[in-house]
Amino acid sequence: MKKLILTAITLSPLLLISCSNGNSSPSRLAQARQRFDLADTNNDGRLSFDEYNDTRIAQASENPQAQFSTADSDENGYLSKSELHSSLSQLRNLKNQ
Q: Can you give the CATH number for the domain in which 50 is found?
């Protein structure tokens, strides 16, 4: 669980999906999609570790590979928008408990 929280906190600036009321506003979702798309340099709709590792979020991390692996729930070596969203949703649920 500690790894999940660390991953979600680290990835949250990339996605900006969490809101104080638990809902995502359209403008925040648009920002999240735009940031994801900017990180997705080959435009395949997912982030490879290299693409993730080039973000300033990963560069600020002590262990970007572990964070990436934790968020990569299907273990295919890529992060989808839904995997990132899921990590943040789990964090939001933990905060609300």
A: 1.10.238
